[in-house]
Structure formats: structure tokens, C-alpha cells
Predict the structure of BTB domain-containing protein.
Amino acid sequence: MTLTFHSNLSKDLSLLLNDANDYDVIIQVGENQSTKEFHAHSVILRARSSYFKNAFSNNWIIKKDNMIMFNKPNVTPNIFEMILKYIYTGELDLIEQSGENILDLLVVSDELLLEELYEHVQDYLIKKQSDWIHENIALVLHTVFNFENCKLKDYCLESICGDPQPIISSEASPLLDKDILFGLLKRDDLQIEEIVIWDYLIKWGIEQTPGLESNREEWNEENYEELKKTLNQFIPLIRFMDIFHEDFSNKVVPYKAIIPSHVYEEIEKFYYGYTSVLLPSRTGKIKSNIIKPKLANIIANWIDKRDTMFIRNENVPLYKFELIYRGSRDGIDNKSFEDKCKGKIKSLVLIKVRQSNEIFGGYSSIGFKTNLRKNGCLTFYRSSENFIFSFENNEDTQNMKIGRVLRYTDAIVDAI
């Protein structure tokens, strides 16, 4: 049997780091007034990081008095101290660190090719600093957007799609990177009215176009042409099919000059009832803290009695889910549910089990009626479309279950 003594190993290496008499690397980090010199051992740095293994190669190395001299002006002393402690001992304490520092640590761990640290810092931010992420989501997304295999980037994008309003209304929103905006507009799961997306796009475009006044009444043809160039790649990503005709007339038509002629022709075809090749509605538009858009799409397929993983297109009916009752907002009791849901039709209920990831719910094509008792008797309502379902979690696309109504004459009964 192999024995391991990691605690003593970590302790001894920590002493080696803090009292290094035989170091052969001098690393200068920081710039301006915030600089610090660190002493380290090339053999340890090479063993722990492929970045240092390459950096200390004969082609890169700079020596002075038999010492390897290395500069990292883009890293602060505080961050590099944490990096060195991790490299030598495998220890990391982030409890007292700010969200900004932890994000900087992520950037440096990516640069130094410290994969284990890179993964851990992402998990820590998502699990322990989620509030800070949402308060600074534009900053975080800008920082990590070009990172490969970055779960923090995916987390930010899904968070924005679930609730885009904070980033759209933030002071930094007009400065949102064009690649990020393009990536967001391409997604089908943005849960916000399309006319709001259009309004934001126009505001963003004006900010991104040098010399363009915010007052449209002062614009000339050249100004419209400049805005058109700025938004050329974004306009085709707008789901004009989701914009009501009144909003289209009041908010889109005034900017007709910036819309490519072939796109505008398709919009007119749509409003006049002809077949159009416009992008279809964004799927899974559901304001839910319980399920993610891909599960909403699965439920929509169940409603249509289609294959669970059916991919929708412009010829397939889509659903817009309107939030009418939320327990955390409206109160979790029978009366609150009755007040919000009575008289509604085609209703969907979602429930997440407390202290569990399990989700279950039900769909009724005739709604969840209340006050159905007559003369002390229960009243039954008919529906052959109703069903109940469950998911193991909000990522479950393999083990979900569905049970459709068997006796359609007893689909709904008032049992309140």
C-alpha cells in the first residue's frame, strides 16, 4: 500500500518558498508604484507550469549573475503571491479576497496555464461570488469572453439571457463589446421583449458611431448611413416577427434607412401575411427561476405532441410564456394561486422541490380552474391535452418523465 504525506510536503515547500537561500529566479511583478520582487526556483516553476517551462527555455531566458531574470508587469504583487503559494504548496485562500482580485487571479491562472487553478477559481466565483458577478456582469463577461472552455463565460451568458434587463440598463451597457453583443443577439434564449432589444441596439449603435447626435431630428442622410454601417451585422439578428405592428410602426419604421432593403422586404411580407425568411421567434421565452430555456422548449414540444428534442423552425407554432404567478413574489398559498391564476387558459405550473434539484409541474390546456364546486359537489372538466412531468434538475434532458391524462373527462377537478 502506498502512503502519502502531503501535509508535511506542503509545509516543507512553504518553508522553501519563504526562506529561499538557493533560489535561481528573480521575478519582478507590477508596475509604477506597485511593484515587488519575488525569489523562486526554476525547477519547481517548470514542473508546475508549462508556461514557465517554455519561458525558461534557452530562447527566452535572460540571466544576470547566474540568476534568471523575469518580469511580469501585468500582474499585481498580491495576485502573484497567491500564484506562487499555490505553485509551491497547492494552497489557496480566497475568503478575504475581493471579486475583482479573484477575477484577476483567474486571468493570470489562464495566462500561466495553471489549469487546476483556472477551474477552481471559476467554480469559486460562480458558487461563492454569484452576487458580485451579477452586479459586475459586464466587466466579468468582457474579461472572460475570449477564454476557451470557460464555464464562467457560459454562466454569464445564461444569466444575461435569463434576465437581460440589468445589463441593458447599466451605465456600461452602451460600451458592451460588439462581439459580446453579437453573441447575445444570436441566441434563441434571450428572455426579453424584442422591441426592448431593438431599442437597446439603436442606443448602442448611436454610442458606437462617432459624431452621431442622440437627437434623431438633427440627423441627415449621412448620419443614417453611418449608423447603418455600425449595425449592419446586427440588424438581421433582430426577430422582427416578435415585434407588434404598433411598436414596429412607432419605433422601427423611423429607422427604415438603416435596415438592409432585403430584410425590410421580408418584414413587409411577414406583416402582410406572406411567407418570410426572417429569423423565427426566440424559443423558450419563459421568465422562470426554475427551468432553463432548453427545458421550456421540451415542454413546448410536449404541448404540441412532438418529439421531445424536436428542433423548431419558422413553420412550427411557438409559445410565449407569460408569468402570472411566482411563489416567492406572490406568496405560496392556495388563495394567492387562485387570485392570480383563476380564469386563465393554457396554463403551465412549475415547482422546484425544496433542498433538491428536482423539478415537477403540469400543463393544462383549459387552465387550473378554481371555485368549481356546485352545491357541495365536485365539478370535473374535460381535456385530452393535459399532462404532468418531472425533471431531475434544470439541465435534465435525459431522465425527464411525462404522464398524459388517461381519463380526459376527469382532467381537472376542483380540490381546493
User: Anything to note?
Assistant: The beta strands are 25-31, 34-40, 63-64, 67-72, 347-352, 359-364, 380-381, 387-391, 401-404, 412-413.
